[in-house]
Amino acid sequence: MxxxxxxxxxxxxxxxxxxxxxxPDEIIHMYEGKCPKCAKKLSLLPTDVEVKPAR
Length: 55
Ligand SMILES: [Zn+2]
Prior knowledge:
alpha+beta; 1 helix; 3 strands; 3-stranded antiparallel β-sheet
């Protein structure tokens, strides 16, 4: 299983990085719906979180 990386589209802050795949809504819930760095509101829409393999 590939590692997962979820990045804030506002500031490129890494919201989650790990070998364990998490659904985006769980990651958003971890941050109470907003980016801890730029306070951008995170959405369940897949365009707001980027999931790609970490190199
Ligand atoms: Zn951000």
